[in-house]
Amino acid sequence: MRIATGRFSPKLIFPVVTICLLCAAGASAQKSAQPAGYTIDRYLNIRSVASPALSPRGERVAFLMNVSGTPQVWMMDAAGG
Question: Residue 67 domain-assigned?
Answer without folding.
Answer: yes
